[in-house]
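FAQ
Q: What does a multi-component entry look like?
A: The components come first, one per line:
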Amino acid sequence: MTDGRRLAYLEALGVDVYVRRGVAPAPATEAELDAPARAARPAGPLPPPVVAAAVPEATLDWEPLRAMVSACTRCPLHATRTQTVFGVGNPHAKWMFIGEAPGADEDRQGEPFVGRAGQLLTSMLKAMGFAREDVYIANVLKCRPPGNRDPKPEEAAQCRGYLERQIELVAPTLIVAVGRIAAQNLLATDTALARLRGKAHALGARGWPLVVTYHPAYLLRSPGEKRKAWQDLLFARQVFARLEAGEQVLP
Ligand code: SF4
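Then the predicted structure of the entire assembly, as tokens:
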């Protein structure tokens, strides 16, 4: 990606980047790299690991899993959905982004993060140097909650096996929980998002490395927070680099 395009995506994120004429944007400084790396530690006592239930989907490959989800009636959301929203992207991605649930646009199109918030997520990904196709994107819930209300715990519990199987199949190096609801649901905590940011967490019995950031829908409502989201993504990049180098970022 050219610097110009990347800067455009950063501007979409609301990140001010000052570049002297004819000078390429500087890479992150040592201090910038070290600060988040130092913070790559667990957020205090981690919640109890979520153990995958002995559910039929736990051994399925992609297509049978997709078919199972599209026919699912495990929770009442099946009655109000237009269609299920399974997930999209590279099935062997090193990065996995997980949001909370489909909205109206996603329910209509059958793909996660395609509305205005989805466009901002795409810009966030591009600012990191990714196309949507490079990563895998999924939600905690595969069906839209009516009126875009928050997922109910019992709905998330019913849907959990599908997401866990998706994570197993993708086997990402790093998961990014997108938004408070996804982060709290995945980590089984009610800790505020602000306190979950800037730390590496372990997800589930397998201890998948996970970091959190704001939901792009929140960023659209609160554009002043975009800079923090960019900080989260820089932090995620540092955690990812450390994981790829074989460093321990989790207890
Ligand atoms: S939200 Fe999940 S558990 Fe509920 S009907 Fe849809 S696919 Fe099934």
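Q: Is there any commentary attached?
A: Sometimes. For this entry: The CA atoms of residues 154 and 172 lie 26 Å apart.
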